[in-house]
Amino acid sequence: MTDTVLQTHELSKRFGGLAAVSNVSLELNVGRIHAVIGPNGAGKSTLINMLSGDLSPTSGRIVYRGGEITGFSADRISRLGIGRSYQKTNIFLGFTAYENCRLAAQSRLPSSMRFFRRATTYHRVRDAAEKALAQAGLENRAGTLASALSHGEQRQLEIAMCLATSPKLLLLDEPLAGMGAEESARMVELLKSLAAGHAMLLVEHDMDAVFTLAEVLTVMVNGCVLESGTPEQIRASPAVREAYLGTEDLAHG
Amino acid sequence: MPASRALTIALFVGLVALALFPLFGDKYYIQLLTKIMIMAIFAMSLDLLVGYTGLVSLGHAAFFGLAGYVLAMMAPQDAAASLWITLPAALGGAALAALIIGFLVLRTSGIYFIMVTLAFAQMLFFFIHDSKYFGGSDGAYVYFRPTAALTGVQLFDLENFNHFYYVVLALMAGVYVLLQVILRSPFGAVIVGIRTNEHRMRSLGYPTFRYKLVCFVIGGTVAGLAGYFNAAQFGFVNPELLSWHQSGIALMMVLLGGMGTLFGPVLGAFAMILLEQLFQGLTEHWLLVMGGFIIAVVLFLPHGLYGLAAQLGRKREAEND
Question: What number is the ipTM of this complex?
Answer without folding.
Answer: 0.92
